[in-house]
Amino acid sequence: MSSNLNIKKRCEHCKNEFVAKTTKTRYCSLKCNSRHYKILHQQKSIKTIEKATELKLPPLEEINKKDFLTVKETAFILNMSVRTVYRLVAEKEINSYNFSIRKILIRRKDIDSYFDINLNGTNIDRDHLKKLITLENSYTINEVLKKYNISNGALYRILSRLEIPKKNFGKHVLVRKEDIDKIFVND
Ligand SMILES: [Zn+2]
Fold it and tell me: For the chain, how many structural domains are there in total?
């Protein structure tokens, strides 16, 4: 590709006009680029703090130090709905300590191992499940990441643990909306 392009653009950080060499350039300088990145990063962690406050949860660092977590805390760190965690507990998918209906505690260790186990011994007809995935009834992985604000790694752990069928379509990976919404839809 020619690098002799001269494109007038507006820097996404300082908002000044500059001449870019490629259509993909977003900042006038490296300095603006790294400053903007830092601000975005900060905003992200502020969002996490706000979410914890809104849910009346302790800060993330404190949750991370605990060996036993409440359902709410578990939902928060796994980026799942509280209902999903209750379902996992009820179906004994995640080991839990039930002192009473209002006092369910989940060991951090059990949360970690929950995502490490990958059940393979099931007799599900995978090809049949794949055939049920069509362009019309699916999300791409990227769409799921955006819609449910979850990291790629966390999503793949969940898909693998729950054995959600996926299908490659060109450079995209498709998953059925029905399968995904069931996991993430909020109360
Ligand atoms: Zn700039």
Answer: 3
Tell whether 138 and 164 lie within a shared domain: yes
**Amino acid present at 79:** N
In a domain, 121, yes or no: no
How far is the centre of ligand 1, averaged over its atoms, from the C-alpha of 81 (Å)? Answer: 40
Domain that holds residue 99: 55-116
Q: Which residues contact 59 (CB under 8 A, 6 or more apart)?
A: 49, 52
Domain assignment of residue 39, yes or no: yes
Cα(10) to centroid(ligand 1), Å = 8
Contacts of 94 (CB under 8 A, 6+ apart): 74, 85, 88, 106, 110, 111, 114
Is residue 171 domain-resident?
yes
d(CA 86, ligand 1 centre) in Å? 48
Q: pLDDT in tens for each of the 187 residues of the chain? A: 444 567 788 998 899 999 887 777 889 988 888 888 877 777 767 777 777 777 778 777 788 788 899 988 888 877 778 888 888 888 888 888 877 767 889 998 888 777 654 333 344 456 677 778 888 899 999 999 999 888 888 888 888 877 788 888 888 899 999 888 888 775 4
- In CATH, what number is assigned to the domain containing residue 79? 1.10.10
CA of 55 to the centre of ligand 1 (A): 37
Which pTM does this prediction carry? 0.40
Distance of alpha carbon 89 from alpha carbon 76, whole angstroms:
15
How far, in Å, from the CA of 8 to the mean position of ligand 1?
A: 13
